[in-house]
Write a structure and sequence with these properties.
Structural class: mainly alpha
Distance between the termini: 25 Å
Strand content: under 5%
Shape: globular
Order of helices and strands: HHHHHH
């Protein structure tokens, strides 16, 4: 399902993403109320992802340079290959939180979309409390010693001519899942606003 939203004069990327988010919620017939704390958490996620979005442009430049170097000048580079998958991995893992905030992740709504709004809210609540949030916490807790060990030993690539400082891309496991956890908490607050009236929902605009 594609959504086309025109960008108005002076609108930021975050504001356009917000419009896309509302359009998707309308199509899903599942519009969660907005709250002050969820808006704050979602703003953090969107701002970080706005900056991270430039990594995709950087990835394209690196790929073009690597292809030109290989097929025009006949020279390959392990370092460039590793830079490519490092950038891709960083961009992908950070974008997980953006997908949740903007509701662009894969949803299996064949049955749920026919249920009343509150029933869908209870399903969302259970999924967040018992699946997504525990999963994020488990990954973060496992990633801390994983990244710390890499940093302590100043891990480098095992490939000749590869990149040093392997702990830098590995650390984005922490940052990416921390952002995903913030996005999940923001959505949880919106679900509890729907089901229990807390936090206080904002007036519909």
């Amino acid at each position: 399902m594609s959504v086309v939203v025109e960008r108005g004069p002076g609108e930021t990327v975050g504001e356009v993403a917000e419009k896309v988010f509302h359009e998707l919620e309308e199509r899903h017939h599942f519009r969660l109320p907005r709250t002050a704390p969820s808006d704050l958490l979602e703003a953090v996620v969107l701002k970080v992802n706005y900056v991270a979005a430039f990594s995709w442009a950087l990835l394209v430049l690196v790929v073009v340079f690597a292809v030109t170097l290989r097929y025009v000048f006949g020279r390959g580079s392990i370092m460039l290959e590793e830079i490519q998958w490092h950038i891709y991995g960083i961009g992908f893992i950070l974008a997980l939180s953006y997908a949740l905030v903007t509701d662009r992740h894969v949803r299996i709504d064949v049955f749920a979309e026919r249920l009343p709004v509150r029933s869908r809210g209870w399903i969302e609540l259970a999924g967040l409390l018992f699946l997504l949030i525990p999963f994020c916490l488990a990954v973060i807790l496992e990633a801390i010693p994983f990244v710390s060990r890499s940093w302590r030993f100043n891990e480098v690539s095992a490939a000749p001519g590869g990149l040093p400082y392997r702990w830098i891309p590995k650390s984005f496991i922490l940052w990416g899942f921390t952002l995903l956890l913030l996005a999940a908490i923001a959505r949880l607050l919106r679900v509890t606003a729907l089901l229990f009236g807390w936090p206080r929902p904002k007036p519909a605009s």
